[in-house]
């Protein structure tokens, strides 16, 4: 075979290899792009479904589990006798291992003021067993709950804990809002159930204007003022004399008739 034929063959193989590599790279980029859509969702525990079964501690692919206890401080009662911290059956109330609920001593108890205490989760010690969550729900207000911590979770395509969860509490949530907190849910529910504001009453109807008072009549300058003593002889100044009654026409006719008859009544 000539040297020119060998060069043409090598050129052909190189060109074909480049084309195959280009297709492979394009396919890989496309697969990664398609997978990127699933990365927008992450695994999380719905605290209202969780039954604190304990599978989070043993079923996770990580050791210790990526699921940790979260203490929602806005809901906490800061109880002196917290049953998320203390066991319900214990020989005493001292902070010793036989009286505590957590098997790894992952809850830190700090005194605030009588009778209030603060409770914090030491996450490196927490194994996700949910024993404290169960106690807080049974005897408290449920401020302790289980959550997948996404600074640890590898976001498996099929979460091993979700497969073993008896309550289907594992759900997919947006990665930009990866936590489900009961305190936020309760706050939203309270806002939705707030009684709507009553409409403000309309303007008060105008009252009718009072009737105008009669013009003041000035007293007669000659009339006596109140409190003045009046003598009988002074009444003539204020009482007009009555005119004598006028003679009636019938009386005049009677006098003329008597004169005609010549009758003298005297």
Would you write up a description of this structure?
The chain has a domain at 42-190. The protein is built from 6 helices and 6 strands, in the order αβαβββαβαβαα. It has helices at residues 3-38, 55-59, 131-139, 160-164, 182-193, 249-261; strands at 41-45, 67-71, 107-113, 116-121, 144-148, 170-174. A hairpin with a 2-residue loop joins strand 3 (107-113) and strand 4 (116-121). Residues 1-7, 9-13 and 16-37 have low confidence and may be disordered.
Number of helical segments? 6
SSE topology string = HEHEEEHEHEHH
First-to-last CA distance: 198 Å
Mean pLDDT across residues: 78
Q: Give the spatial strand order of the biggest sheet.
A: 1-6
Identify the overall geometry: rod-shaped
Q: Tell me about the largest β-sheet.
A: 2 strands, antiparallel
Low-confidence stretches: 1-7, 9-13, 16-37
Number of beta strands:
6
Structural class: alpha+beta
| Helix proportion range | 25-40%
Strand content: 5-15%
Kindly provide the radius of gyration, computed on alpha-carbon positions and rounded to a whole number of angstroms: 54 Å
């Amino acid at each position: 075979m000539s040297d020119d034929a060998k060069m043409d063959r090598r050129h052909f193989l190189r060109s074909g290899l480049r084309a195959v590599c280009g297709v492979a790279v394009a396919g890989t980029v496309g697969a990664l792009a398609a997978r990127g859509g699933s990365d927008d969702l992450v695994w999380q525990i719905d605290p209202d479904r969780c039954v604190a079964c304990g599978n989070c501690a043993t079923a996770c692919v990580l050791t210790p589990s990526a699921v940790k206890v979260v203490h929602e401080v806005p809901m906490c009662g800061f109880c002196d006798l917290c049953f998320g911290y203390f066991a319900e059956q214990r020989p005493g109330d001292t902070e010793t291992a036989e009286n505590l609920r957590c098997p790894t001593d992952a809850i830190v108890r700090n005194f605030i003021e009588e009778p209030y205490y603060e409770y914090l989760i030491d996450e490196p010690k927490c194994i996700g067993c949910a024993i404290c969550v169960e106690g807080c729900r049974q005897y408290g207000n449920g401020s302790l709950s289980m959550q997948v911590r996404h600074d640890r979770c590898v976001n498996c395509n099929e979460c091993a804990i979700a497969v073993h969860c008896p309550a289907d509490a594992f759900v997919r949530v947006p990665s930009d809002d990866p936590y489900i907190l009961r305190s936020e849910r309760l706050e939203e529910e309270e806002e939705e159930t707030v009684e709507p504001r009553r409409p403000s009453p309309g303007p008060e109807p105008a009252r009718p204007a009072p009737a105008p008072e009669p013009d003041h009549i000035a007293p007669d300058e000659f009339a006596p003022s109140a409190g003045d003593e009046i003598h009988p002889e002074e009444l003539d100044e204020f009482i007009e004399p009555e005119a004598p009654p006028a003679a009636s026409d019938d009386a005049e006719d009677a006098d003329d008739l008597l004169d005609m008859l010549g009758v003298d009544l005297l």
